Amino acid sequence: MGPYGETYPIPHDANQAMNVKAEAVSDAEEEEDPVPITFQEIKAEPEGNLNELQPVHGEEQRYSCDECGDSFSQEKILIAHQHIHSGEQSFCCIVCNKSFSFKSHLKRHQRIHSGEKPFCCEVCNKSFSDQNYLKTHQRIHSGEKPFCCSVCNKSFSRQCDLKTHQRIHSEEKPFCCDVCNKSFSVQSTLKSHQRIHSGEKPFCCDVCNKSFSRKSHLKTHQHMHSGEKPFCCDMCKKLFISKGDLKRHRHVHSGEKPFCCDVCKKSFSQQSSLKRHQRIHSGEQPFCCDVCKRSFSQQSDLKRHQRLHVDVCSKS
């Protein structure tokens, strides 16, 4: 906004070089990033003289920001800079009408609609729509983890992963389900949880068409078709389809029985074993014979019973 109320368009070159704390990118298109990505620095392809866009701290200071004190060599650069503080969003996407403060942010967003991915990893040739996605991806190959937790010194390749991790220490759970009020430390976990209420199962197996509410559940299910067992017990080398199966198996070696009956205090190594045991106390018999309608508390008891009908039919 100019001194007399005029509205200035943000210069293209100003958008390209200023280091800003970008707005959260809620429309990140990479499926493998379950956590929303926040960019700390936006740098687009250089155009024009970038030096004139940097704050000037020498004798040439002329245009100073009242909010943060940064000074610039040109008034138009100061005006563009002030959009950071005002929150004004002058650049609008003609496809979805989403608005942005900087032209470079709009340009990056438009690649979602166009499908353009001009930034390519030179190691594995995977392409990305944004240079920052590529930079983050390259840490997979380099092993670089520049973001370190000040509490436990655990390191991460992405700042958003560090921020999520720190909630373990702070016990912060800022994402709340509006149906049951259960809170979560990660937004993606809340999103998965909400599918319990909605019944949504967006992840479908391309072999048998079975659907799942979580991508991880689909991935585990697909191991049944492929026969892959990627999780190995380091004690006995037995292989398992899922990480959960491996975790339960390890209780055999450790002798741990973390699942305790609240009626008789008997403990079990697996939750499913506790659940079966609890039917003794509750009298629940959920397994019903479809021939004679007799019910049983255990599925194994039902299977034994059904053999009686098979034997009778074979004799007759």
TrEMBL record:
GO molecular function: DNA-binding transcription factor activity, RNA polymerase II-specific; RNA polymerase II cis-regulatory region sequence-specific DNA binding; zinc ion binding
InterPro entries referenced in this protein's UniProt entry, alphabetically: TRASH_dom, Znf_C2H2_sf, Znf_C2H2_type
Localization annotation: Nucleus
CC annotations in GO: nucleus
Pfam family, any one: zf-C2H2
Alphabetical keyword list: Metal-binding, Nucleus, Repeat, Transcription, Transcription regulation, Zinc, Zinc-finger
Residue stretches making up the C2H2-type domain: 63-90, 91-118, 119-146, 147-174, 175-202, 203-230, 231-258, 259-286, 287-309
Annotated SUPFAM superfamilies: beta-beta-alpha zinc fingers (SSF57667)
Domain of life: Eukaryota
PANTHER family for this protein: C2H2-TYPE DOMAIN-CONTAINING PROTEIN-RELATED, KRUEPPEL-LIKE TRANSCRIPTION FACTOR
Family assignment from sequence similarity: Belongs to the krueppel C2H2-type zinc-finger protein family.
Descriptive protein name: C2H2-type domain-containing protein
